[in-house]
Amino acid sequence: MAQFQAAVSRNETLIRVLEAAARMALPGWYLVAGCLYQTVWNVVTGQPPEAGILDYDLAYFDASDLSWDAEDAIIQAGRTVFGGLTAPVQIRNQARVHLWYEHKFGVPCPPHSSAEAAIDTFEATTACVGVRTQPGGRWRIYAPHGLADVFNLVVRPNPALAPRDVYQAKTTRWQRQWPSLTVLPWPAAAPRTGTGTA
């Protein structure tokens, strides 16, 4: 975990997002997925820490109000908090994912019970990682599949929820930016495809 923290800390934008997210104090929040493992890939392959990172995903979990208006209020607040950064910050309430996921990706999504449960369903086990800071500046790192694949540049599919075409679309882009990645194939026992795009 210390190696992971040291690697992602080299991304100055990521650290700024973490610090600002802590001030927002959203329930069950994590900075998740791409900005984390892609920063590690950059460090491992000798690229600038922020290379190829399209955005920074901030997940939180609030089941007390599942309306779009409540989530949008947080998104609008985030535009002020994260204004001036070099890449956008995408804020999403993981308690609402089941309301739109099937329309976007073509497969149903059971309601998540926590932000961690949502992270567990990301399209690759390599992507199942979240970080937040706690009082005193300590980091909480959630990585249910460990971090070895992240440092070894291995992308392993996670057919828990996301359809195969989402995995394939994302890994195609990733391999263009990080050609040394080893992308493992979608398992034959889980041939599910959706109708959306990544």
Protein model, in words:
The chain has helices at 2-8, 12-24, 34-45, 68-81, 97-105, 115-119, 148-151, 164-177; strands spanning 30-32, 56-60, 89-93, 130-133, 139-142, 154-155, 182-183. The protein is of the alpha/beta class and 198 residues long. It has one domain. The strands form two sheets. The chain has a five-stranded mixed β-sheet. A two-stranded parallel sheet has the order 6-7.
Short description:
It is built from 8 helices and 7 strands, in the order ααβαβαβααββαβαβ. With 198 residues, the chain is of the alpha/beta class.
Beta-strand level of the residues, as a percent range?
5-15%
Strand order of the largest sheet: 3-2-1-4-5
Helix content: 25-40%
The whole-angstrom Rg is 16 Å
Query: Given the C-alpha coordinates, what overall shape results?
Result: globular
| Tally of helical segments | 8
Q: How many structurally independent domains?
A: 1
Number of strands: 7
Note the run of SSEs as H and E. Answer: HHEHEHEHHEEHEHE
Distance between the first and last residues' Cα: 29 Å
Mean pLDDT: 92
Low-confidence stretches: 193-198
Largest sheet: 5 strands, mixed
